[in-house]
Amino acid sequence: MAKHYTFNPHTLSYEILGIPFRVRLYRIVLTVALACALSTVAIYVFSYFFETPRAALMRQQNEELQIKYDFLLQRLRQTDNELNELMQRDNKMYRSIFEADPIPLSVRESGMGGIKRYEKLLAEAQTAQAAKALILMDKITKKIYIQSKSFDEIVEYVREKENMIFSIPSIQPLNLSDPKVHFSGGYGWRSDPFYHNQKFHHGIDFGGPTGTPIYATGNGTVEKAEFNWGGYGNMVIVNHGFGYHTRYAHLSEIKVRQGDKITRGQLIGLMGNTGRSKGTHLHYEVLFKNQDVNPINFFNTDISEEEYGKIIKALKEDADKPAMEY
Ligand SMILES: [Zn+2]
Q1: Inter-axis angle of helices 128-167 and 53-89, nearest 10
Q2: Dist. CA 122–CA 125, nearest whole Å
Q3: The pTM of the whole model exceeds 0.85
Q4: What spacing in Å lies between the alpha carbon of 321 and ligand 1's midpoint?
Q5: Where are the alpha helices (DSSP H) in 90-181?
Q6: Do 246 and 293 fall into the same domain?
Q7: Ligand 1 being an ion, which residues bring their Cβ within 5 A of it?
Q8: Are residues 115 and 190 in the same domain?
Q9: pLDDT tens track for 24-49
Q10: Domain housing 9
Q11: Three-state secondary structure call for residue 209
């Protein structure tokens, strides 16, 4: 290091001057700063050309992670596709079988609060795959939720259908294989037995001995079980729900009470000749939305082809004969 001299006028000689502390400090700082800068450049240059073991490990882990994310995304897309197929089948098959409205795609695919949550993640290239996976997961979760709701609904529809199947009148109100029981009058315009003019017959008649058991033709609730002064005599009306009622008239005896829950095939009364009736018979009506319909169309679960043929034949033969009541 260069030495500093100063001229002393008193001694007339040059004297060695001590370096001031400030200057020394400045020099030290400068040296350290320079060393730092140089080593930084050296490290930078080195790491540019050569990878440190730690960086290499991280890069490797990163690559592995990318592969895993790609795989995850692939699996999620596969699941999403399977779910889409299930939704299609649900809308086009299951829901249409049960006459349920299809769930619109917009509802099925509506997001769960939107993509905003993932905006930050999506902006970063390294985590974009993760964000995509999360978004897809969200969509799938929502779809599954809606699908499971739809299945719950379908289960309800099935229960309702089952209930409907058991409730809608579909058997004969008496045992037609009993030889003493016979079909005696059809639905439609017929000659009135009392006045002999043409009158509309709102049900069908079955003749037989007094006391022949009469059965409910579907599950339901007894709406009326009383003597009807209008001409039906001892009468039972069953409400089957789904818009259906059945009427059983001219009974000799009623075996149920108003409000009773009854099942298909349950005994509700006995055949008789009460009310406006000429001869022992059952007058049976089926009503849909309070409009009588031809009961012949509701004998569909227990009637044999032979029995059905017999009824049709009797219908034709009896067409001109008067009904046993109006
Ligand atoms: Zn009748």
Answers
A1: 20
A2: 7
A3: no
A4: 12
A5: 95-97, 105-108, 119-123, 128-167
A6: yes
A7: 203, 205, 283
A8: no
A9: 889 999 999 999 999 989 888 887 88
A10: 4-49
A11: coil
